[in-house]
Amino acid sequence: MGLDRYASRFVSLGIVCVVFDYRHFGQSGGQPRQLLDINLQLQDWDAALDYTAKLEDVDSERIGIFGSSFGGGHVISVAAKDKRVKAVISQCPFTSGLYSSQTVGLVPLLKLAVLGVRDMLFSSKDQIVTVKLAAALMNAPDVHQYRQLVPPHLQPTFPDYVAARFALHIALYNPGWSTSSVTCPILFAICGKDSVAPPAPSLTYARNAPKSTIKHYEHMGHFDIYTGDYFDTATSDYLDFLKSNL
């Protein structure tokens, strides 16, 4: 989903980059597939930090983390409690489940809730009730751009869905509430035309972080920042931040 492009930029500074798939996704294990469990994903972040800190070429006193969209929320949560983290980049971050849920609309939310209950009650390790990432969990006009992040060779087989039970938990996850507990330097890259992660609450939360750097890209939408000139603009800012803080 384009994380390799960011890793390549960071490696240009001599930074060791560890990129991982959450359990139930990509090349990681876990059944059923496409299960997005917030607590399990946060545990995967802990495991990734444990692994990275033990690598021979890594200075365990200079570990930074990068996350985008939902992962942009996770890195806030992780840095708020794990003081091994010395720098954070949170890109177009999911900071408020309450506000992000409102972008979907009331009727679609009710439909998602019904599917979520069905998934919780009737699924197994081999079969889940699914919801589309684009057009269901994200239904803004620009979400079609989501597919451009999938590498061409994976397009035919890419699973564009998750287990529906995720819809029952998303509104209760509010990483932005933890920004005041992030004591290390943190860069918030906030897209001004973000239709998935509303920028207004993210800007408010970002100001609560004691050592925050806020980059407000007013003309970018949620998916613009991953490619083209916008990607170059953002990653240039990220490299400056990492040079100064890591």
TrEMBL record:
Region forming the signal peptide: none
UniProt KW keywords: Hydrolase
Organism per entry: Pseudozyma hubeiensis (strain SY62)
Claim: Hydrolase is one of the keywords in the record: yes
Keyword Metal-binding among UniProt keywords: no
Pfam family, one: Hydrolase_4
Domain Serine aminopeptidase S33: 5-222
Superkingdom, taxonomy of origin: Eukaryota
One term of GO molecular function: hydrolase activity, acting on ester bonds
Protein's recorded name: Serine aminopeptidase S33 domain-containing protein
